[in-house]
Amino acid sequence: MADTDMPPSPNAWLIGVREAVPLLGGYIPVAVSFGLISTQAGFSTVETLAISALIYAGASQFLFVGMIASGSPLWLTVALTLLINVRHVVYAPNLAPWLPKSRWWPWLMHGLTDQVFALAHSRLPQLPAASRVGWFFGAALLAWLSWIAGSLLGAVAGEWLTRRWPLLSEVMPFALPALFLVLLVPRITCRRWALALGISIVAALLCTLTGLTNIGIPLAAACGALCFYLVRLPETAATGGGKRR
Amino acid sequence: MSLELWLGMAVAALGTYLIRLLPLLWMQRRLKRRDGDAAVDALPKWLVVLGPMMIAAVLGVSLMPRTPDPAGWLATIVGLGVTLVVWRKTRSLGWPVIGGVLTFGIVVIVARVVI
Question: How far is residue A74's CA from residue B10's CA, in Å, rounded to a whole number?
Answer without folding.
Answer: 12
